[in-house]
Amino acid sequence: MRQPALTSTASFQALADHAADAGKWQMRDLFGADPDRFKKMSVEGAGLFLDYSKNRLDGRTLELLVDLARTRGVERQRDAMFAGEKINLTEDRAVLHTALRAPFDAPALVVDGQDVGADVHDVLARVRRFSDAVRSGAWRGHTGKPITDVVNIGIGGSDLGPKMVCLALRQYSLPTLNLHFVSNVDGHDMDATLSQVDPETTLFIVASKTFTTSETMMNAQTARRWFLALAQPEALAKHFVAVSTNTEAIKKFGIDPANMFPFWDWVGGRYSVWSAIGLPIALAVGYGYFSDFLAGAHAMDQHFKSAPLDRNMPALLALVGFWNRQFLDCGSVSIAPYHQDLNRFPAYLQQLEMESNGKRVTRGGDPVDTPTCPAIWGECGTNGQHAYFQLLHQGTDVTPIDFIAALRPGHEFAQHHAALLANCFAQSEAFMRGKTTDEVRADLQAQGLAADEIERLAPHKTFPGNRPSNTILMEYLTPHSLGALVALYEHKTFVQGVLWDVNSFDQWGVELGKVLAKNIEAELTGDAQPAKHDSSTNGLIAMAKAAV
Ligand code: F6P
Predict the structure, then answer these.
(1) What is the best residue among 155, 159, 265, 511 to mutate for testing ligand 1's pocket, by most ligand atoms within 8 Å of CB?
(2) How far is Cα 278 from Cα 186, in angstroms, rounded to an integer?
C-alpha cells in the first residue's frame, strides 16, 4: 500500500507545530522542572538499559512521535517482517534475520515452501560441528598440523559483523586460534595478513553472500594462489571453506560443497552476522558463546515484538533519532562506545544504518520529502574526547551522541573503570548542561583574572550545551549483551525506515561505482586509452598508467 508523503500526515504536522516550541527549550530547564525525568525517560529490555532523557523533548513530544509511528504502520510492518512477508519490495524478498536467532522450538515459519527454522538449525549444527573440530584440533591442515590461524575473506556485511564481534568478545576467545580479516581489494591488506600466517596451519573462509563481489573474489584467488604455491590442489579442501548462498560459484572456485556453509536470500548482507557468516565468531569463541550471542539478539527481538511502543527500546531509540534528524536538523550521529572492545562497533553501525536507510525514494518510488538517514560515525571514548569532541561541544552543528558502556569491566583495574565511566557520564552531562557565559565569568573571576581579560576569554570558554545524547548501559559486555545491542540497532534502523517509508533492505546505491570501476580497471590494465571520461577521470587514469 502506498503511504502518504510523510510531511502531509497529520501526525507529522502535529510534530512540526510542537517542534516550533520545543526548539526553544533548554534541557537544563527540563531537568529542573521534573526530578523524575530520568526515571520517566529510560527503559530496560533484553538486559540493556537506555537513558534517552538527555534529549530536547518532553512527554508530549513522545506521545506525538509514538502516534506517528502508529500511523506509519511500525507495528504492522514489524509483524510482517517477523512473519516472513516479502517486505524487501525491490528484490522481492522476505527479511528474516530474526529467524536466524530464533530458538529450536520456535513456531514453524515457512517461506517459499521452505521450513526456515529447520534450515537454520541444520546449518547451525554444521557450524557447531566444524567449529568444535577446528578448535579441538580434530580438523587438521594437510600436513597434519592443527589450525592456528583463520583468515576470513569478505567485505561489507561478510566482514564487518564477524570482525566487530570477534574483537568485542576477545576475552571469550581461544588464545591458540588467531582470527584475521581481509576485506580490502588493496593488496596491502592481503599482504599484511599473509605475512603473518603459515599455509600448513591456516584456514581460509571465503565469505560472500553472492560469491560475485569483485574484491572478495580477487582476494580469494590471491589466497588460493599463495596457498597452491606451497601445496598440492588436493590440500585445498583442508584449508578453504566458503559461506555463501551461491553453490555453483563456490564449486567453480574449487571449494568442495561439503565445505560450504549456506545461507539464504532472505538474509541481507548487513544483517547476516547471525547466519553462517558468523562462522569466524563460532571458531573464535566456541559454539556455546556464539549461541549466547544469538540468544541475546532473540531476547531483543522478543522485547521489540511485545513491548508497547512507548516502552519499546528500539522504537524509542528510533523515534528520538528521528526527532533529532527531522526537527533539530541533526545531519549526523556520533557513536561513542566507552568500551575499547567495541572499537569496530561504529564502523558496523555505519553499514547497518547508512546502507539501510541512506535512501531518497519511498518504497513506492516517490521522492522522500524529508531528510533521511544521518551520517553515522564515531570512535571509542575516551579517545574521541581528545580528537573531535571539541567540535561536538562548540562546533556550529549539533550532533547527537550515543554513549555505550558496561557497568562492570572485564578486567581487574578498578580505577580505570571508574575513570572511564566518570568520563562517559561527565561528557553526557556537559553536552546537556553546557556552560553559560555568566558561569564562565564567575569562574574566571574566582581565578582572579582582570575584567577585560575575562571578557576577552568568556566567548571562547562558553559551551552552548543543550546537545542531545542517549546512554546505553549493560552490566558486562558478554556474548548475550552484545547480541542484544546489535539487535537493538537493527530494529532501530527498521523503525526509522518505516517512518521514512524507504526500503531498508536493498542497496542499489553501491552498483554504479562497481560498474564504473570495472571499466576503469580494464583501461588501467589494458591498452585502451582512457578517453571516454571527463577530463579529471581521464587525467587520473593517465597518471596511474604512467606510474606502472
Ligand atoms: O556492495 C554492497 C554489498 O552488497 C553489501 O550489501 C554486502 O554486505 C557486501 O557488498 C558484500 O556482499 P557479498 O557478501 O555478496 O560479497
Answers:
(1) 155
(2) 24
157 lines ligand 1 (CB under 6 A): yes
- The C-alpha cell at 315 is 522504537
Cβ contact 116:98 at 8 Å: no
Give CA–CA dist 307/303, Å, rounded: 6
Q: Give 4's pLDDT tier (boundaries 50, 70, 90).
A: very high
Question: Is 533 an active-site residue?
Answer: no
CB atoms within 10 A of CB 1: 6
Identify the pLDDT of residue 2: 82
Q: Which atom of ligand 1 is nearest to the CA of 154?
A: 16
pLDDT of residue 528: 67
CB atoms within 10 A of CB 221: 14
Distance 278 CA to ligand 1 centre (A): 15
Note the pLDDT of residue 1.
67
507 lines ligand 1 (CB under 6 A): yes
> Contact, 284 vs 173, CB < 8 A?
yes
Per DSSP, helices labelled H in 41-186 are 59-71, 74-82, 116-136, 160-168
Which band of pLDDT confidence, cut at 50, 70 and 90, is reported for residue 548? Answer: confident
Q: Is the pLDDT of residue 120 over 90?
A: yes
Q: Residue 516 and residue 77: Cα distance in Å, rounded?
A: 36
User: What confidence score (pLDDT) does residue 74 get?
Assistant: 98
Q: Mark whether 386 is an active-site residue.
A: yes
In the DSSP assignment, the letter for residue 331 is -
Q: Of 386, 412, 460, 511, which one is the catalytic site residue?
A: 386
User: Is the Cα dihedral 248, 250, 251, 257 positive or negative?
Assistant: negative
Cis peptide before 222 (omega within 30 of 0): no
Query: Is the minimum distance from the CB of 350 to ligand 1 under 6 angstroms?
Result: no
User: Is 80 exceeded by the pLDDT of residue 529?
Assistant: no
**Residue appearing with cell numbers 527498521:** 494
145: cell is 598440523
Cell of residue 351, nine digits: 553499514
Q: Helices 479-500 and 313-327 sit at what angle, rounded to 10 degrees?
A: 50
Q: Ligand 1: does its nearest atom lie under 6 Å from the Cβ of 504?
A: no
Question: What confidence tens digit (pLDDT) does each residue in 302-346 have?
Answer: 999 999 999 999 999 999 999 999 999 999 999 999 999 999 999
Nearest residue (by CA) to ligand 1, atom 2, is: 510
Residues 6+ apart with CB under 8 A from 330: 324, 374, 397, 398, 399, 400, 468
Which residues, at least 6 apart from 451, have a Cβ–Cβ distance to it below 8 Å? none
Reduced to 3 DSSP states, what percent helix, strand and coil does the chain have, rounded to the nearest 5? Answer: 55, 10, 30
